[in-house]
Amino acid sequence: MAGPAAWTGDRRTRRKKDGVTDMTAQVRVMRRRGKVGPAAFLDEAERLLEASRTAASRDDAVVFAYRAACRAAGALIESARDGRRRMPAGSAWSRLRALLPEKEMWARRFEAHARFTNRVELGLERGLGDEAVAEVYRDACLLVDDARGECGYLPVVA
Fold first, then answer.
1. Does residue 26 contact residue 83 with C-beta atoms inside 8 Å?
2. Lowest CB count within 10 Å: 80, 109, 126, 147, which one?
3. Which residue range or ranges hold the SAV-6107-like HEPN domain (predicted)?
C-alpha cells in the first residue's frame, strides 16, 4: 500500500484494503469473548484460500494464502486447548508447536513462509515467480486440509 490514497476512506474501507475483512474482524471479537471455535477459523481459511486463488497480483496471492494457513493453525490451536484458559506465548507457529508437537513440520515450514510473506508485504520481494506463489499456496491448502481432518470439520459435498 503506497501513498496517501491507500489510507483514504473510512475505517471499514481501510481495513478491507489491509486484507482484514468483516469476517476476520468478527472472528477477532468472538475470540476475545471466548466464543470462536475451530469451525470459524476453518471457514475463514477457506475464504482466504479463495481470495488467494483469485488475487489480482502474486503478492496478494502469497499474503492471502499465508493468512489462510494462520487461520488453519488457529483452528488446530483451538481444538487442542481443551478448555485451557491460558494460551502459550508467542506466534501461532510457536503455539502450534507447544500444543501439538506432532505439527512441528508445519510450524517450521510456515515460520519460513512467515518471513517470506513479511518481505512480500513490505515490498522487499519483487518479481515473484509462479513457483514461490504456488509453494505457499500448496502448503496452505495442505495445512487447511490437515486442520479440517484433525478438527473433524470436513466440507459437506453434494
1. no
2. 126
3. 61-144
Give tens-digit pLDDT for 19-74: 555 555 655 555 555 567 888 999 999 999 999 999 999 999 999 999 999 999 99
Q: Which residues contact 130 (CB under 8 A, 6 or more apart)?
A: 58
Contacts for 88-96: CB closer than 8 Å, 24+ residues apart:
none
In the three-class reduction of DSSP (H, G, I as helix; E, B as strand; rest coil), residue 89 is classed as coil
Would you say residue 9 lies in a domain? no
CB 93 within 8 A of CB 73: yes
Structural domain of residue 103, as residue ranges? 21-151
Does any domain span residue 116? yes
**Residues contacting 96, CB < 8 A, separation 6+:** 73, 76, 77, 103, 106, 107
CATH of residue 96's domain is 1.20.120
